[in-house]
Amino acid sequence: MYKEQLKAHYFAKELLKKDCIVLDTETTGLNNDDEIVEISIINKHGEILLNETIKPIKKIPQDASNIHGIRDMDMIQSFKWNDIYQQYRKLTKGKIVIIYNKQYDSRIIRQTCKKYNLPTPRIQAECAMLLYSQYRGIINKRTSDFKWHKLKDAIIYHGIFLSGQPHRALYDATSTLELMNFMADNPPNNSKYISSDNLKNEQTKNNLTNKRTENLKVNHTIFWKPIIIFFIFIILLIFIFK
Fold first, then answer.
1. C-alpha closest to that of 24 among 92, 102, 81, 89
2. Which of 50, 184, 189, 239 is found 20 to 30 A from 121 (Cα to Cα)?
């Protein structure tokens, strides 16, 4: 298990040595007819290459706006996808594109291209989410595979805090880059096989240990208190009858 975690660490390190960029999108939803409403691309140094809201063909559902905060009224001066399509092609051509949840973003890009009758550019993409799940090394007992983690949970777990608005494309792209840097710079802990159940058991054991420690402290206090009072009483008697 640790070997798999270590492989993820070295893969992240090697990946960031190459000519790579990080991409993130915000969308109208999760369905097969949904499309991009915002896209950000940054290089491996965190420099912004593209950061634009995209005016969708369909209206943005309120449920989606509640997540990323982008509304139809914000799109008056925004580009349409066909306006920045060539820029997207140029930026991704010949690059390794790192995406947190590659499968989802790739599908949304493909769906958006289809709406404008544009061919979907071929890109060499790597999924930071799957890489991180391997690096973290927690096994999902139901699927017997590495457990997936939300991006916001991953960066909080490792103490990565960024300024900006979560669930916006630039914030999430920057979060992905910071998480990649963390994996590359920090070898994983050499821990035993970890499953979701084992993790809960370890937490329970730690809680019980803490409770036992507190109980011992209380018992020691109860034991010594009357002895101390007795000695104080003896000392007072000596002073009184001296």
1. 102
2. 184
Token pair, residue 92, equals: 């991704």
Look at residue 231 in the predicted model and tell me its pLDDT: 67
CA distance 131 to 133: 5
User: How many helices (H) and strands (E) in the chain?
Assistant: 8, 8
Cβ atoms 152, 131 nearer than 8 A: no
Instruction: For domain 1-185, give the CATH number.
Output: 3.30.420.10
Q: What percent of the chain has pLDDT over 90?
A: 74
Six token digits for residue 206: 């730690």
Q: Cα–chain-centroid distance for residue 155?
A: 5
Structure tokens at 52: 């634009």
The pLDDT tens digits for 53-92 are 999 999 999 999 999 999 999 999 999 999 999 999 999 9
SS3 of residue 37 by DSSP: strand
Amino acid present at 54: I
Burial status of residue 33 (CB atoms within 10 A of its CB: 0-12, 13-18, 19 or more): exposed
Residue extents of the structural domains in the chain: 1-185, 190-241
**Planar angle of CA 103, 109, 110, nearest 5 degrees:** 85
